[in-house]
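Hi there, hope your week has been kind to you so far. Please have a think about how the structure follows from the sequence. I've dropped the whole record in just underneath, so have a look:

_____
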Amino acid sequence: MGVSISMDDFGTGYSSLSCVKDLSIDKLNIDRSFITNISTDERDAAIVKTIIALSRNLNMKVLAEGGLDSRGHPSQRESGHPICSSG
């Protein structure tokens, strides 16, 4: 079985799109700052939806750092791409 490599705090700091392209990453962890206000801030929701689509198109898993309950967010359900929730 291969080694699983994930990128923490995706979308902030050193987690740039060039890293996603250049490294062997199979999971993106969406930073909590994008998840916290996802139901009230349409820009956060759009960013999360875009990250979900990116992960789907690159055959990656996506993990949300806290803030989502077991039902998730409508953008997650509409995408058909599950998000795992972390702490």
Q: What stands out?
A: The longest strand covers residues 6-10. The CA atoms of residues 9 and 31 lie 4 Å apart.
